[in-house]
Amino acid sequence: MSNGTQREQWGTKLGFILACAGSAVGLGNIWRFPYITGQYGGAAFVLVYVVLVFVIGFSVMLAEMAIGRNAQLNAVGSFRKIKGGMWPIVGWMGVIAGFIILSYYGVIAGWTMAYVLKSFTGLMQADAGAEFGAFVTNLPQVVAWQALFMAITIYIVYKGIGGGIEKYCRVLMPALFLLLLVLIVRSITLPGAGAGINFYLKPDFSKLTGGALGAALGQAFFSLSLGMGCIITYGSYLGKKETLPGAAIQVCFLDTLVAFLAGLVIFPAVFAFGVEPGAGPGLTFITLPNVFGQMPGGAIWSALFFVLLFVAALTSAISLLEVVSAYFIDEIKWSRQKASMVMGIVIFLMGIPSAMGVAGVIPKLAGRDFLDSADFLASNVLLPLGGLFIALFVGWFWTEGAKQEVENNGTVPFGLYTAWLWVCRVVAPIAIAYIFITGLKW
Known about the structure:
It is a single chain. The protein is an all-alpha fold. The protein has helices at 13-24, 27-39, 43-71, 75-82, 88-118, 128-136, 139-158, 161-188, 193-201, 210-223, 230-235, 244-272, 282-293, 298-330, 336-358, 370-397, 399-406, 417-439. Helix 1 (13-24) packs across helix 8 (161-188), helix 2 runs antiparallel to helix 10 (210-223) and helix 9 (193-201) packs antiparallel against helix 12 (244-272). The chain is globular, with a radius of gyration of 21 Å.
């Protein structure tokens, strides 16, 4: 509750599903999933990834939804209300991770906005690698785009759950799918696209090494926005009549669908123009502009692609700012307007060192620039630990309460409850611990 007023709620279940899917669908779905798939041999990796999403990802997501809806509070307040003791620290890890991730996420999202414009102003004719290097080292320009992106994010969160987050996600998510479908049609109709489709959809199980399994596990976990308090916070605005297992399945499905469709955009295009499909993160800002530059009407397709990236980034950024804002609304009793404005500005200022690090203004630490270091702390430490403790909390310390929540107090039986409980107790903690331990290699 905030200042004695009734807690905001989603207007519809669809609004909740789209907002959660928007939180889960981010830059990682569009650029990270395709290049990791490229590295590990295509379709065989996709199959493993899908299984892990619907076993590990679904289980932790359902746990987060149950915690949030039961407590009707932010990530910290939810653990304090349900169990107390040391458990609110788990919520704190999510809030801190939200701070850190959004600080550098805003920088990268600003790049996507700039590249929409750049698509029409010489990017198609330029050396994309040199263009990218010149852009990210132009600090005033990068910070200006970061500021614009954060201003849009702040505005949507400022407007509230129904009038802001739900309203815009109901537009942004269908727009994202429409953009994907338009780009897929262009990509698969390119001469030579068949080789990319074959690579992507025909499994090669010889490429499934231990590294591939770990990469699929990590991508499944991070892609769904788990461990950072987003789903707990969004769940806290959900009414008691909605069924949680169905909602969690739908969010996992939409998130996976976006990642899969992104592969259908990228692989046919890169094969059509003879580009290495496992090209790494540079695929987005360097490789793909070169590919678009060789297409008829390349500027338009490039701009549409970067609009797609912007939309994916925005829906995730909204949820990250909401996690932080909800803490200050519930715990410090700030108004939503104050919380979103003040914390949005603080996070923007926190992001400037990330922009400076990429620009080479701040020296690297042990081979990593400031942005990479912030990403390492959030993605390799805070998120896996958060997800690990969320699974253990539901699996061992709040089993009866969780059962009541996922079954709507016994009115909607959940046939997979026992299996879900044991995934939370044993399978998910082992899997997440693996992600955590392997991710600690600095």
